[in-house]
């Protein structure tokens, strides 16, 4: 049997046909065109799934299940409760999808499905317990326990970006204070850079962005830091410290075998991982015992398709 | 079949014979007398187990397994890696115990076994995913996932007291900064009270301790707060706020059905639980979704015996 994995993003819908082993056999994508509202978007997800099956030389009968990764939260009835960036609220995704392909439809959070993908075919392949973190607009997290996604008792487990690491810190969009993503997301890195260069227009961060403050992204800060720019080095160092604090919190609570790091900031590669591992080592509780390996996620943009597909396995 | 549960503390060894359902059939205790070193203590654990079996009218053949809850960490080989308060390091507990009773011996952390006890026969009975917290000298934690103890991949999972809730906060005995137990243990409450009354000898906290600073305990602060003492109210309010921050971190990561609260501070009962639930409610991420019930642990001193016994089930 094969599986359909759908990665629903704000810009594109990506669909792949995936083997039992988590290998993509064929994939395709179309623009999401969010402004149409949910129903036509979901219909396109179904139509593209049929096309991918056909183009790969398979039939609908070969497909065991469909999985969909959404940038939000879904319930056990296949209803998308909430996708802030898509502005979706209580959308009966499974029902609409099944009008086009009548297969079991599984829906989960995009960071959660990426965690499953990495655990099946990526950085944490083969280990029972792992955590995946995506450092992007926010800090997304997914937990795999005993080779299965762990979403908690109310489906909100693994909101790791909303662990508070500073009880009196910055207020988060969630209403609480000092949430980890206020310090360890790409957004936080960019915000801190913008604030810091206000008094320091000579910083290389600005040069990396072609002189346009609005164009500063995580790469600008990281590349300026590589070149030794003092402002960038300071901001990036603090960023890594916060990242380490949250990772040690995960080690002290969930104690996985692997913590896989993905998302935009992870493009820094070893320039992120090396100092991060050093910081984690300093903060670890049981210094004599083995603890989680911290690894770069390997599946990149395919994680959404593979992980969604594996939901139905 | 029946089970032996051993609760190893710094002052007493408590042993109980426990039914399949987690009910104590008979129990007894002897002083630990730590200064003798580990081996005689473990031999006493074995001898007392034999006595408890006999006194309860059972034979050794009726016993399926022995469980031991230790104030520290053990490995899969039945070796106690580390018990800071007992000053035990790499003690072959299982081996010595089996010289006295040759049954399977399971060893786990005392907070972890209490979590299992509450999940079998206490505040979280019947739900698959729960967390137990003990607010005492430190903040101990135990995680139960799918009705089983979850200790992580290296046995250090559920060190919830060492989640940092203030990245630049007080340094903890573990070496890291701002660990939850630096704010939410009974020790932290007492420390804050002692610091606060330095400039305020009129505080009722001191009166509750009979005028002796060294006798201030959690009860003194809580009772002074009940009576409206402004210093006590402030300290207790802050204490509850920190407790809520850590609990919300657990909700956002592990999302259990029940969080059961035990340990000395929990003797405050609803005077703790009511404001705690209010604080948690303010900080919760998904305000419209159900989340963990926060309950008083119910098994008190029996939790160690029951949970240890259930390790072998």
How would you describe this structure in keywords?
5-stranded mixed β-sheet; homodimer; Nucleotidyltransferase, domain 5; 2 domains; 313 residues
The CATH homology group name of the largest domain in chain A: ATPase, nucleotide binding domain
The strand count of chain A comes to 13
The CATH topology of the largest domain in chain A turns out to be: Nucleotidyltransferase, domain 5
> What can be said about the biggest beta sheet of chain A?
5 strands, mixed
Overall mean pLDDT of chain A stands at 96
Q: Could you tell me how far the N terminus lies from the C terminus of chain A, measured between alpha carbons in angstroms? A: 10 Å
Relative helix content of chain A: 25-40%
Widest beta sheet: strand line-up of chain A: 3-2-1-4-8
Percent range for β-strand residues of chain A: 15-25%
What is the H/E string of chain A?
EEEHEEEEHEHEEEHHHHHEHEH
Using only CA atoms, what is the Rg of chain A? 20 Å
């Amino acid at each position: 049997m094969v599986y359909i994995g759908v990665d629903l993003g704000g810009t594109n819908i990506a669909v792949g046909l995936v083997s039992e082993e988590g290998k993509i056999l064929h994939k395709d994508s179309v623009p999401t065109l969010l402004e149409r509202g949910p129903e036509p978007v979901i219909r396109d997800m179904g139509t593209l799934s049929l096309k991918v099956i056909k183009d790969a030389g398979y039939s609908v009968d070969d497909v065991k299940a469909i999985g969909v990764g959404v940038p939000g939260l879904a319930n056990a009835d296949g209803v998308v409760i909430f996708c802030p960036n898509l502005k979706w609220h209580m959308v009966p995704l499974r029902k609409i999808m099944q009008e086009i392909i009548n297969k079991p439809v599984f829906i989960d959070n995009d960071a959660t499905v990426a965690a499953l993908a990495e655990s099946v075919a990526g950085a944490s392949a083969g280990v029972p317990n792992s955590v995946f973190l995506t450092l992007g607009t926010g800090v997304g997290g997914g937990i795999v326990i005993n080779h299965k996604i762990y979403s908690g008792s109310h489906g909100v487990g693994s909101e790791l970006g909303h662990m508070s690491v500073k009880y009196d810190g910055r207020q988060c969009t969630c209403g609480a204070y000092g949430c980890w993503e206020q310090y360890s997301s790409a957004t936080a890195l960019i915000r801190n850079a913008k604030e810091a260069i206000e008094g320091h227009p000579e910083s290389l961060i600005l040069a990396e962005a072609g002189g346009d403050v609005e164009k500063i992204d995580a790469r600008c800060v990281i590349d300026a830091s590589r070149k030794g720019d003092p402002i960038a080095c300071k901001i990036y160092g603090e960023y890594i410290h916060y990242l380490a604090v949250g990772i040690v919190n995960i080690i002290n609570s969930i104690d996985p075998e692997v913590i896989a790091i993905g998302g935009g900031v992870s493009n820094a590669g070893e320039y992120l991982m090396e100092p991060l591992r050093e910081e984690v080592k300093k903060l670890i509780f049981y210094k004599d015992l083995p603890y989680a390996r911290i690894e770069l996620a390997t599946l990149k943009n395919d994680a959404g398709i593979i992980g969604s597909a594996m939901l139905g396995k």
